[in-house]
């Protein structure tokens, strides 16, 4: 029995040691399992607005915080004193939990446990490098590549193997969120709602589609018809003033102005709340404040942990008087259907819902080798001020209101996209030969090119638009002369499946003995078209 008791005691000690080692291993594996990319995305979404992309405490929202400046998370002297438990506590429970900044939000209700662990590991890694990395200055090439992705260019255009991704807020419940009058005006002339973009610290922005009043009304009707549930109880009643007063206290308690501007003071991390009453419906505001992630899982707005009553009070504070509900009347079915066609034709779902809506023959063109096709200066000017290339389509190139620097960065990016990037840059086009250009004009008429390449405003017969191609009225400014020759020689090698016929070569053999001369004549004629 004594031996049995000794064995049992030894077994218990071995088990205890095993459990201890298992705990240590689990903790080590948990730290090792951190996903650096997911953590980097989370840091950018929730932290970088104040702490900066590199964690130096110099984010664009920092100046609005006054004397309570964000910590420099790359400072080894300060960060070395903080344990992981301390970092986890301040991220999960906010600055007040450690008697620090009341402007530091609590993300514990927003981030699940494993994401919180990964974020702590990422923050810890910002100061444990051997030396602080130099401040990164974005090169024009890098800026162009980031603009392409964050503006959503691959969501509509094919650009190599770049995959589309959602870059805008979800719209499947837009009818519960927006007020009709505001929505119509916004669709006509969009403006930046979030100073730092829907994707924080990105170039993303709502472009302008040059909608007519009728198109804006139809599109708004369709969006307002998108809802998953009927309105809840309207925020109204005799306690409105009391609710608004309580809302103001909640505004102070939760430090909302650390991220949001309100009446000319506050941060830039979130939308300006001064005029929110004309934009958002009270019912939606209350439900969003109570649980932001139920509406948009990717929103950087933290879950504040407020009750439905408190959320209602905050909504009442921002919108003390109920705005006239223009959208309370039934929406005309024909207007909704027109709006749906416009929504699909403009490719709205490609940015808002990651649907490849424009990958179809009548959609935007393939840009994979755009540097072969167009002239750099034309591209730069077109990006700054787009205009319809195929005026008969609902799809249209939107205006992103690019700055000179942004348009130049994008143009540089696309001009590098060529079939053989090692070839020397395309030389400036030579002046077209007048006699050859005149012969090309005659061939242009003979081959009836204008039937498929109509000029803007040309009358179109019903049903013929499926065979149409872009206007050539500015071909001399837009197209690279060398590319024109290659395209005429073998259209299918450039755009597989194109309806452009092969007039001059068949399976690599010339159809006519003077094929090359005819192609050069047409090219020289096109180079004279410079409207």
What do these coordinates show?
The chain is mostly helical and 531 residues long. Helices cover 44% and strands 2% of the residues. It has 24 helices and 4 strands. Helix 5 (84-93) crosses helix 6 (113-125), helix 18 packs across helix 19 and helix 22 packs across helix 24 (515-526). The chain is globular.
Strand content: under 5%
Largest sheet: 2 strands, antiparallel
Helix-strand topology string: HHHHHHHHHHHHEEHHHHHHHHHHHEEH
Helix/strand class: mainly alpha
Given as residue ranges, the uncertain stretches (5+ residues, pLDDT < 50) are 1-6, 11-33, 357-361
User: How widely separated are the two ends?
Assistant: 105 Å
Oligomer: single chain
Characterize the overall form.
globular
- Strand numbers in spatial order across the main sheet: 1-2
CATH class of the largest domain: Mainly Alpha
Number of domains: 5
Indicate the mean pLDDT.
Answer: 84
Label this structure with key terms:
mainly alpha; 44% helix; Cytochrome Bc1 Complex, Chain D, domain 2; globular; 531 residues; 5 domains
In short:
This protein is mainly α. The protein has helices spanning 2-32, 36-46, 48-51, 76-79, 84-93, 113-125, 140-150, 153-156, 174-177, 180-188, 213-224, 240-253, 282-290, 308-318, 333-345, 348-352, 370-373, 376-384, 404-415, 434-446, 475-478, 481-489, 491-494, 515-526, and strands at 261-262, 265-266, 505-506, 509-510.
List the helices and strands and how they pair.
Elements: H1 2-32, H2 36-46, H3 48-51, H4 76-79, H5 84-93, H6 113-125, H7 140-150, H8 153-156, H9 174-177, H10 180-188, H11 213-224, H12 240-253, E1 261-262, E2 265-266, H13 282-290, H14 308-318, H15 333-345, H16 348-352, H17 370-373, H18 376-384, H19 404-415, H20 434-446, H21 475-478, H22 481-489, H23 491-494, E3 505-506, E4 509-510, H24 515-526
Antiparallel strand pairs: 1-2, 3-4
Helix pairs in contact: 2-6, 5-6, 7-19, 10-11, 11-15, 12-14, 13-14, 18-19, 20-24, 22-24
């Amino acid at each position: 029995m004594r031996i049995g008791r000794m064995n049992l005691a030894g077994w218990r000690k071995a088990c205890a040691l095993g459990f201890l080692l298992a705990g240590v291993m689990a903790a080590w594996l948990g730290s090792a399992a951190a996903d650096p990319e997911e953590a980097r995305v989370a840091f950018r979404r929730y932290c970088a607005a104040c702490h900066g992309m590199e964690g130096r405490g110099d984010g664009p929202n920092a100046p609005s915080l006054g004397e309570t400046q964000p910590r420099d998370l790359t400072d080894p002297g300060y960060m070395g004193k903080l344990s992981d438990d301390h970092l986890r506590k301040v991220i999960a429970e906010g600055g007040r939990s450690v008697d620090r900044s009341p402007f530091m939000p609590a993300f514990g209700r927003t981030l699940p446990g494993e994401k919180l662990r990964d974020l702590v590991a990422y923050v810890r890694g910002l100061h444990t490098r051997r030396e602080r990395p130099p401040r990164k200055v974005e090169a024009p090439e890098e800026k162009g590549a980031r603009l392409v992705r964050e503006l959503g260019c691959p969501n509509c255009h094919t650009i190599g193997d770049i995959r589309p991704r959602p870059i805008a807020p979800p719209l499947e419940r837009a009818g519960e969120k927006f007020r009709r009058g505001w929505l119509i005006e916004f669709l006509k002339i969009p403006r930046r709602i979030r100073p730092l973009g829907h994707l924080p610290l990105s170039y993303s922005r709502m472009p302008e589609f040059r909608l007519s009043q009728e198109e804006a009304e139809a599109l708004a009707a369709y969006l307002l018809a998108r809802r998953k549930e009927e309105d809840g109880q309207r925020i109204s009643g005799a306690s409105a003033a009391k609710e608004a007063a309580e809302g103001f206290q909640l505004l102070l308690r939760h430090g909302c102005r650390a991220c949001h501007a309100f009446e000319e003071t506050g941060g830039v991390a979130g939308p300006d709340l001064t005029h929110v009453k004309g934009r958002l419906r009270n019912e939606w505001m209350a439900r969003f404040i109570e649980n932001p992630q139920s509406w948009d899982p990717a929103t950087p707005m933290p879950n504040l942990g407020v009750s439905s009553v408190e959320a209602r009070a905050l909504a009442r504070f921002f919108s003390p008087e109920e705005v006239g509900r223009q959208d309370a009347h039934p929406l005309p079915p024909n207007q909704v259907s027109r709006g749906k066609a416009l929504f699909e034709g403009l490719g709205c779902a490609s940015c808002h819902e990651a649907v490849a809506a424009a990958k179809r023959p009548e959609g935007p063109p393939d840009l994979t080798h755009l540097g072969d096709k167009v002239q750099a200066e034309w591209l730069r000017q077109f990006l700054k001020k787009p205009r319809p290339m195929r005026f008969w389509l609902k799809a249209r190139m939107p205006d992103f209101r690019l700055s000179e620097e942004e348009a130049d960065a994008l143009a540089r990016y696309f001009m590098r996209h060529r079939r053989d990037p090692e070839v020397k840059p395309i030389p400036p086009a030579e002046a077209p030969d007048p006699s050859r250009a005149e012969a090309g004009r005659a061939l242009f008429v003979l081959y009836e090119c204008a039937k498929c390449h109509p000029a803007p405003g040309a009358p179109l017969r019903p049903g013929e638009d499926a065979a149409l191609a872009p206007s050539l009225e500015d071909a001399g400014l837009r197209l690279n002369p060398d590319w024109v020759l290659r395209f005429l020689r073998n259209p299918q090698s450039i755009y597989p499946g194109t309806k452009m016929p092969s007039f001059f070569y068949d399976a690599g053999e010339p159809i006519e003995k003077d094929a090359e001369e005819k192609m050069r004549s047409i090219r020289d004629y096109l180079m004279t078209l410079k409207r």
